[in-house]
Amino acid sequence: MKKIVPILITLLILSGLGIGGWQMFKPKQEIVEQGSSFRTITPKNIVPTSKSPDLDKILSLPIIKTGVKEEEQDLEKRNMLDLLAKLQNEVPMVNINYLMDFDYKQNKFVVKLKTPYNKSEVEFWKWWAKSEYRVIPETYFKLMVE
Question: Fewer CB atoms < 10 Å away: N or C end of the chain?
Answer without folding.
Answer: N
